[in-house]
Amino acid sequence: MAGPSSYMFVAAILFLIGAVGVVVRRDLIVILMAVEIMLNAVNLQFLAFARQLGQSEGQVFVFMVMVVAAAEAAIGLAFVLLLYRTRKTINVDNINLMRG
Amino acid sequence: MQVAFFWLFSALAVGCALGVVLKKNPVVSAVFLMGSMFALACLFLLLDAHFIAVIQVLVYAGAVMVLFGFIIMILNLPQEELPPLTLGVTRAWGVAFGAVALLFLAGKFFPTKEGFMPTPQEFGDVRFIAGPLFKEYALAFELTSLVLLVGVVGAVLLAKRKA
Amino acid sequence: MWIDLLIVTCKVLFMFLFVLGIAGLLTWVERKQSAILQDRIGANRASIFGVRMIGLFHPIADALKLFTKEDFVPLHGHRVLFMLSPALAIVPALMTFAVIPFGDNVHVLGREVSLRVSDINAGVVLVFAISSLSAYGITLAGWASDNRYSLLGALRGAAQMFSYEVVLGLSVVGILLVYGTLDLNEIVRAQGGYWLGFIPRWGVFVQPVGFLLYFTAAFAETKRMPFDLPEGESEIVAGYFTEYSGMKYAAFLFSEFCEMVLVAGLSATLFFGGWQLPVDVARGLAFPLVGVVHLSGSWVALLQVLTFCLKVVAFLWLLMQIRWTLPRFRYDQVMALCWKVLLPLVLLNIAVTAAAVLAVKG
To answer: Do B83 and A79 touch (CB under 8 A)?
Structure first.
């Protein structure tokens, strides 16, 4: 039987992959994807705990996280599109207008 | 049986997540991310959260990822314009941090044999989520609709602006 | 244990054979029906030892031809994704049938068996979740082909399926509000019986606007004329599958036909009473001159399955008729229709239905 600790283990690994992805990659689109991986890892954690406690709150939170993630993806990708139009790049290293 | 499925889908989810981070081409990354989402939906099914699993496929695999694919194709960057995968000093620190954290987590959370507590029969049912969603969390639920509205208007406004 | 396994295997096999068989037959129906509409004879040349069977051998001949064709893979495209996308197109189209009920629960070998593959309680949502995945097949096919026309087709397809999915999902909300369940079998069960003794309690009479919206959106999802912009052979060669040949091309073709069967099956299930017979069989079949014929349980079950199949076939005929009647939209018209006409209508439908349900049920 795979218990809560197994799910926590997998969720932790997924979250780490996402976090390292955000730090390492320069492609803005892939960075957004890595953020999605992190959100998903958290969702898995929420559900594992909800199952352990037999409560519905965890599932409700996952529902909310998904809604926010969808809105975040839409806004984020609109930013990518706008950024590419103005700067002709999606490499985050080249987006340094704010650096004096 | 359940354990085998758990490790199968976990391996799939983690492997696909690695693919997202390690592949240079964003389209391939997007396909890997879709695979990861799908494997996670299967894990949700193993957790008896049927409704959430279906919503996961509908929202993530069905909507968010198609949006990603759409944007990647609109940009349609040629191979040489893609940001490289080479590792700078700062990024090496990121990977090092990740490795250390992974070791720490592996020690801390290493899977034990114990299973889940017995869960209520109606755990995965839609009604089980709908109750609290529309009662205790009604305000939060309404606010998420506001978030979505802002998201829609913001996305249209940003994408339509002339550069 | 092994009996359960056997039952599930039987259900899956039946579902597969039903869908693939009808889809295969549809390739013939498409040619014949278009021929009848245009006052032609249509395909009738394929013969075995001189027997022509009004062209019924053509699907077999087509399959043989497609199997033996050269399997072309573009040099500069993405090889793996090019191979993968036909599968991504056809698998969701087949998977969705898992939750559509073929008949009422029957008693077999001492246990109650529901006549559908999976008994998940969020059936309606599952259908839309899985069918939303079929957008990947087109977008990836178009991108992996490394061809401008393919990419144009893929972008059109993604945008179109994305937009109409919104209307498709919302158009069913009215039905869900009325019946108060996400379970397709319970929705069908709620559609049994009559108003005033002769009008069947079908969903279409409660949700006429919802049905029209659903049918339009679902039709757009199948990407067939007048919504075949992603293919648009007079504009962008063949759209997203320009570079495909042989069995991969056949996979795209088949996924389109499977989606048609799915649309027909869902329309019948959600709005036209699914496996509910239009006559009351609980008290036996009443014939005008012969009298009442009483039926046993298994005969009723068989009649229900037949009724469902008949409804599916009727809808398939309607879909074919529309496809060969209307000319193609312009692309901006398709998008405007979705966002400026259908979406406000579907939201209005939900509001009105919700108010009505609240007024009736309190």
So the answer is: no
Contacts of C130 in chain B (CB under 8 A): 57
Do C159 and B70 lie within an 8 Å CB cutoff?
yes
Q: Find chain B residues with C-beta within 8 A of A83's C-beta.
A: none
Among A17-31, A34-48, C187-201, the range scoring the smallest mean pLDDT is C187-201
Q: Would you say A74 and B67 are in contact if contact means Cβ atoms under 8 Å apart?
A: yes
ipTM of the modeled complex? 0.85
Amino acid of residue B93: W
Cα–Cα distance between C288 and C291 in angstroms, integer? 6
Q: Cβ(B117)–Cβ(B48) under 8 Å?
A: no
Residue B56 and residue A65 in contact, taking contact as beta carbons nearer than 8 Å? no
CA distance C107 to C103: 12
Amino acid present at C228:
D
Question: Measured between alpha carbons, how far is C112 from C104 in angstroms, rounded to an integer?
Answer: 10
Contact with chain B for residue A54, Cβ under 8 A = yes
- pTM metric for this prediction: 0.84
Per-residue pLDDT tens for B82-110? Answer: 777 666 777 777 778 777 877 777 777 66
Q: Of A52-61, A86-95, C8-17, which range is least confident?
A: A86-95
Closest residue to B114, CB basis, from A3, A63, A86 = A3
User: Could you report the per-residue pLDDT of C227-250, keeping only the tens digit for each?
Assistant: 887 777 777 777 788 778 778 888
Task: Report helix angle B26-46 to A28-53, nearest 10.
Answer: 0
Tell me the C-alpha to C-alpha distance, in Å, between residue C153 and each of B25, C91, C223, C241, C273: 21, 21, 11, 8, 37
Of C109, C102, C88, C1, nearest to C308 by C-alpha is C102
Q: Which residues on adjacent β-strands are paired with residue A27?
A: A91
Q: Would you tell me which residues 34-53 of chain A have a C-beta closer than 8 angstroms to some C-beta of chain B?
A: 34, 36-37, 40, 43-44, 47-48, 50-53
- A83 near B CB under 8 A: no
H runs (alpha helix) in chain B: 2-22, 26-46, 50-56, 65-75, 89-108, 126-134, 138-160
C-alpha span between C290 and C286 (Å, rounded): 8
% of chain B beyond a pLDDT of 90: 5
pLDDT at C346: 93
d(CA C255, CA C134): 9
Q: Which of C17, C115, C25 is nearest to C316 (CA)?
A: C25
